[in-house]
Design goal:
This protein has about 220 residues and is an all-beta fold. It has no helices and 13 strands. The strands form three sheets. It has a six-stranded antiparallel β-sheet, with no helix packed on it. Strands 3-6-7-8-9 form a five-stranded antiparallel β-sheet, with no helix packed on it. A two-stranded antiparallel sheet has the order 11-12. It is elongated, with a radius of gyration of 19 Å.
């Protein structure tokens, strides 16, 4: 948790939670603006013969103005990042973030393993509830399939959250560049991990999602 304080009127201070904890109201604060985002889903692993995994989806974001004149503390829960999908396996779903019972952002869905998009399946962004504004997280790009003649089919990007973009897809390369074939982790808070690529029968993992966040702006 970080804490920023101002001596000016209006906005007095801000608390930022990147792990679960308890918000304690500073003296003189009457209202807060809460921005809470769920964790991003992990990208799916690839399947041999160039079948890429799908990107994980981003967590939802709720934004709410709350009168805290009669409130002293609120439990803050931060949704965990979805796990990276192992080779030819699903990623993990992101966890839900919440500011007490006031508002919450659900975690993003997990990326599917390679060649699992026969019905156009893809990871769906997390929803949000309780906010004055409720935003759904960005969807992950779908998994896909290819063959030795279609190396352009590569892993899919993770979904973008309120805070920014998701993890990069796995990218094909040459022998010795195998580290590039795995999906990259989510970059912004609550974003999804990228899907893994595959090469000549070898399978690579997806990238992990990024954990959620809760930002509390405090007003006098």
């Amino acid at each position: 948790m970080s804490y920023i304080q101002s001596a000016a009127g209006g906005l007095q201070s801000m608390q930022v939670f990147t792990s679960s904890g308890t918000w304690t109201k500073p003296s003189g604060i009457l209202k807060v603006k809460v921005i809470v985002t769920g964790g991003g889903g992990g990208g799916g692993g690839s399947e041999g013969n160039y079948n890429n995994g799908g990107g994980g989806a981003a967590g939802g974001t709720a934004i709410e103005i709350i009168d805290v004149s009669g409130i002293s503390t609120v439990a803050v829960t931060i949704g965990a990042a979805g796990a990276a999908g192992a080779a030819n396996s699903d990623g993990g779903a992101g966890g839900t973030s919440s500011f007490g019972t006031h508002c919450s952002g659900a975690g993003g869905g997990y990326g599917l393993p390679g060649f699992q998009n026969n019905a156009g399946e893809y990871a769906v962004g997390g929803t949000s509830t309780g906010g004055d504004i409720n935003l759904q997280g960005g969807d992950g790009s779908p998994s896909g399939g290819g063959d030795a003649e279609d190396e352009g089919t590569v892993g899919a990007h993770g979904g973008a959250s309120y805070w920014g973009g998701g993890g990069q897809q796995g990218a094909p390369g040459k022998t010795g560049d195998e580290a590039n074939f795995g999906g990259k982790p989510g970059r912004a808070y609550g974003s999804g991990g990228g899907g893994g690529d595959a090469d000549v029968g070898d399978e690579y993992p997806g990238g992990a999602g990024k954990a959620g966040i809760c930002v509390i702006e405090e007003y006098s």
